[in-house]
Amino acid sequence: MERGVLVGVVGLRWAAWVWLTVVALLNLDRVHHPAVSVAGVVATGVVTVVATMALRTPGWERAMRPGLVGAEVAVAAAVVTAEAWVRQAPVSGQSLAGTWPLAAILVAAVAGGLVWGVGVGTLLAGARIVALTLGGSAVGQGGRAALAAVSTGVSWIVIGAVCGTIIRLLRRAQHQLAEAEARDAIAHDLHDGVLQTLALIERRSESTEIARLARDQERDLRAYLFGGRPENGGLPAELRAAASRLERSWPSTTVTVTVSVDAPKLETAKVDAVVGAATEALTNAAKHGRAHHVVVFADIDESSGGLFLSVKDDGGGFDPAAVVEGMGMARSIRGRIEQVGGRVEFASIRGDGAEVRIAVPPSSRRAAHRG
Amino acid sequence: MADTVADTVHTVVIADDHPTVRSGIRADLGPPFVVVGEAGDADEALAMIATHQPDLVVCDLNMPGGGGLRVVRETAARYADRIKVVVFTVSEQESDLLDAVASGAYGYLIKSTPGPELRRQLLRAVDGDPPFAPELATLLLGEFRRVARNATGSNPLSDREREVLNLVARGYTYRQAGSELFIAEKTVENHVRNILGKLHLTRRAELIRWAADHGIR
Fold first, then answer.
1. Given a cut of 70, is residue A227 above it in pLDDT?
2. Is B91 exposed, middle or buried (0-12, 13-18, 19+ CB in 10 A)?
3. Would you put residue A351 in left (φ > 0), alpha (ψ -120 to 50) or beta?
4. Would you state the pLDDT for residue B112?
5. Which DSSP helix (H) or strand (E) runs through A50?
6. Which residues of chain B lie closer than 8 angstroms to A192, CB-CB?
7. Chain A residue at shortest CA distance from B172
8. Is residue B174 within 8 Å of B144, Cβ to Cβ?
């Protein structure tokens, strides 16, 4: 990634150098010290060539060594400062150095991030203002020139800061990408290994205890490998944990948790309410419904943009009058959900089983987003 | 009694590179299924399918010799629904499911499915009822929404198909979904088949568009 940026900067250097050379040569007869002008052209040319060559070798990272960056910054500062000495009078509004100093700022930002970017930007901005003062144009007709110098200086500092920050963000993104790739590689290997074995144990084990253990392990492993979709917040992990807890207490009941990618992210209070309600619905299915299998399903509620959650079992049906800790099951679920502004529906399914349907409105920020 | 069992025998080829998994599936199936062959890689599986012409193939995805997808693709191309390939894998990855269905898999089951449930699902499969777990219905809901957002702007599924998919994702059996929607169970099965067919089409259309966008012919 750094190399890509540096290659871009090489392009900038060549363009800036050509510009600088043309301007310098055209103005040779109008400056005090043509020799210094030519020296500047040569020095910047050397830097351009060296920087270009450096990137073509395998050890291109050397282009970011402090020594080389320092040399480039020194040349840039010298060119900016020498300008005042070389010029008799402002040749025009245009600076002789042109965009040349930008390359030094960018390279410093790539090599040293925000601090170097801002540092070099400030240094060159200072040099520019010193040059203006030495040139004496701050006196008399120099008002506009001073303003131009200051604004150029400020823009250099800003460019150093922005470039340094972007580089840091890019590095972080690159790091995360590498981590995700490593995880994918592990996932691929585990697919045929550990997951395979766990699935086999789950299916073949005579002992429900061992089968349940394997199932727990599989769930954890999957959560690590494929889970963690940040857009859903903590809900999927919490629902899976609730499912595992239920399977531990009720070994004859299995729970499938599926969360759609579109399920909205909710604030903690709502997640807690939903997970609490789901836990009670699961307990009811196992305890009163004697269900073998329960499906917990979470998705976006397309009409409101909020969450839709369903807990559906294949048991003997819901018993809304069942009392848990002094409160009716249905009332307890309803209470939790209504507290966060949601709605609950209990349904008996023809044939067998029951379903608890829960709708929770989106978080206010999301609602504001949509409105 | 013996006669009725003989009448309803369903021949099966099991393809998986792990012998333990193969013997596990064999033990779970039992009559009326008869395992006529076990294959450890894609080539072996395709050869066995050609020899035995089974009713059903239970096929892993990660296998040597081009993987299960090759078995799915070539079997579907040659025999259509006469030989049904049900993918049986540890992968709950969206892309694996979509690729398998797009290649012509008749159904998709997860390896942690308990033995009796596997048997039940495979019996449904030979009856013409694509085995299709809630996890997968959930994935498909998301996939079709994504297609709607990205490509056409309109959901390729009809309202009724969306309702069916939603109920299956919530764990409804086809029979329960039918009575919930006041339609016959057979109609629900047809909807599921159509949904899978549409996934196949949109997946292919997307691939073609992608190829065109990237200058591949």
1. no
2. buried
3. left
4. 75
5. helix A34-56
6. 17, 62, 90
7. A312
8. no
Residues 6+ apart with CB under 8 A from B153: none
**Which of B122, B166, B101 is closest to B34 using CA atoms?**
B122
Closest residue of B to A253, CA-based? B114
Mutation target vs A (from B26, B121, B135, B138; most A CBs, 10 A cutoff): B138
Q: What pLDDT sits at residue A97?
A: 65
- Please tell me which residue of chain B has the smallest CA distance to A214: B112
Per-position b or e across A236-273, b if 16+ CB within 10 A of its CB = bbbbbbbbbebbeebeebbbbbbbbbbbbbbeeebbeb
Estimate to the nearest angstrom the gap between the alpha carbon of A177 and the chain centroid: 10
Cα A21 off chain centre by: 42
A310: closest CA among A351, A267, A255? Answer: A255
ipTM score: 0.76
A316 exposure class (CB count in 10 Å sphere: 0-12, 13-18, 19+): middle
Task: List residues of chain A with CB under 8 Å from any CB of chain B.
Answer: 191-192, 195-196, 198-200, 202-204, 215, 218, 222, 226, 254, 256, 258-262, 293-295, 297, 299, 310, 312-314, 349-351, 353, 355
pLDDT at A311 over 90: yes
Query: Are B177 and A335 contacting, i.e. CB atoms less than 8 angstroms apart?
Result: no
Tens-digit pLDDT string for chain B (217 aa) = 444 445 678 999 999 888 888 888 888 888 888 899 898 888 888 998 988 899 899 998 887 777 888 889 888 888 887 888 999 888 777 777 888 888 888 888 888 777 777 888 888 888 877 887 788 888 888 888 887 777 665 667 888 998 999 998 998 888 888 988 999 988 988 888 888 778 777 666 666 665 666 555 4
Task: Give Cα A256 to chain centroid, integer Å.
Answer: 31
Cα–Cα distances (Å) from B7 to A201, B65, B174, in that order, read 34, 35, 26
pTM assigned to the model: 0.60
Per-residue HEC secondary structure of chain B comes to CHHHHHHCCEEEEEECCCHHHHHHHHHHHCCCEEEEEEECCHHHHHHHHHHHCCCEEEECCCCCCCHHHHHHHHHHHHHHHHCEEEEEECCCCHHHHHHHHHHCCCEEEECCCCHHHHHHHHHHHHCCCCCECHHHHHHHHHHHHHHHHHHHCCCCCCHHHHHHHHHHHCCCCHHHHHHHHCCCHHHHHHHHHHHHHHHHHHHHHHHHHHHHHCCCC
Cis link prior to A362 (omega < 30° from 0)?
no
